[in-house]
Amino acid sequence: MKKYISLLLCIAVLFFTNQSHAEKITAGPKEGSKIGEVTGTTINDADFALSKLVEKGSVVLVMLRGFPGYQCPVCSTQVAGYIAKAEEFENQRNTPVVFIYPGKVSNLKKRAKEFTAPLENEVDLPSNFIFVLDQDFKITNQLNLRWNDPKETAYPAAFVIDHDGYIQYAKVSDNHGDRATAGEILEFLDIIH
Q1: Helices and strands (H and E) in the chain: how many
Q2: Could you give the CA distance from residue 81 to residue 13 in angstroms, rounded to a whole number?
Q3: Measured distance CA(12)–CA(118) in Å, rounded
Q4: Angle formed by the axes of helices 73-84 and 182-192, to 10°?
Q5: Cβ(139)–Cβ(49) under 8 Å?
Q6: Residue 149's closest CA among 172, 170, 175?
Q7: Digit-coded pLDDT (tens) for 106-125
């Protein structure tokens, strides 16, 4: 009898774990869908419109966690990985990489600059890498990537958008890890280019 109860408990745990995981990974736009216009302000106070980049070719869009009360070390590692491959993104038809830095804090720009400062101390940020501030989660909500749990901001995600505005690649993480690496994105760009 104990074996059957243990088996039933294992099945129940697997069922509910898979249900929970399935619910979380439904966040964000899907491959094959057309992305709407994304606008905002860059970390350097320039106006940003995704459509202006998309009309020139493929664009990589990376949703970071922003400032959930601290600078996310996994985001820092992820962005550093992209910067390490900056030349390859440039060689791949000068593909721009757009990082979205979301938050509700009143000093979001200051927090974003704190985030990029250690990176900029190591290297000059590539000209085709753009950091966009997402004040009050406007872009995060638009992309259905808002992570509403305590001390969370946005689901980490990465997308490759083609010159017609269609999402060709989408990866949304339901945890802090398991993110699209620069290498994964570059491999995909090699395939579609």
Answers
A1: 7, 7
A2: 36
A3: 45
A4: 40
A5: no
A6: 175
A7: 899 999 999 999 888 777 88
CA distances from 21 to 132, 152, 175 (A): 29, 17, 10
The model's pTM: 0.86
The identity of residue 14, as a single letter, is L
Alpha-carbon distance of 92 to 99, in angstroms, equals: 18
Q: Provide the pairing of β-strand 129-135 with 167-172.
A: unpaired
Cα(101)–Cα(75) distance, rounded to whole angstroms? 10
CA distances from 7 to 11, 16, 18, 30 (A): 6, 14, 16, 36
Per-residue pLDDT tens over the stretch 47-90: 999 999 999 999 999 999 999 999 999 999 999 999 999 999 99
Identify the CA nearest to 114 among candidates 46, 66, 80, 146: 66
Closest CA to 133 of 113, 117, 110, 109: 109
Single-letter residue type at 129: F
3-state secondary structure of 168: strand
Structure tokens at 76: 């820092």
**178 φ, ψ to 5°?**
50, 50
The residue written with tokens 């990974």 in the block is 25
